[in-house]
Design goal:
There is one protein chain. With 234 residues, the protein is mainly α. 82% of the residues lie in helices and 0% in strands. It has eight helices and no strands. α6 packs across α8.
Amino acid sequence: MNQLLAIAVGGSVGAVARFLVANGVYAWLGRAFPYGTLVVNVSGCFAMGFLTALMLQRFTAVVEYRAAILIGFLGAYTTFSTFALETVYLIDDGGLRKAALNIFLSTVLCLVAVWFGLILGRKIFANDAYRWLDDLPYIEMLLGILVFFLLAALAEFVFQRLNITVERRLITLVLLLGVLSLSLTLWIAFKLFDFQLEVQEILGILATTNLVGMMVVWLGTLFGNWLWQLNLLR
């Protein structure tokens, strides 16, 4: 009975949180694409991985707390049904590319988010897990990602201002993505030079940096387009 009450309380808070976050994202980016549901699901998956590591790997949290947070709050905060419905709506409206992109981003980014959440949680709450992460250049990486985010936003703004063709836009963004992914991969590799990495670990780092790069460039272009819509510097 206590677990059911805990799930009910956590679920009510999670549902309200999802409503506020999703609508906030839609107010910022618009409803041409399911941005709100995507942000909610990705952030919820990260929280699931991180909090699972917190509660199950390190601390002996009571069952009611785990039920309230992992089942109640995160179960109501994330939503697979809304993702499925919005994807079907995109298909009905003829947006097959948007539907495919939504499926791809939702699947890949959610898996990466929960994986990263688990790694980060184990890093913080377990002394003997993923020790190589101690040497990661967190501040430098964040600054580098911010720079590329701003470059992508500037590129989108210039695209709109000069009415650049789609082909040239695609080439520019692919080059920007390639430089970002390669920079992140080399940055991490140089920080790990004392370690003998396996092939699968190198491929994992490369795949992760590419996914991060895609997300950064995509969000940067959205931000640049938003600035253009505000009629700034025109």
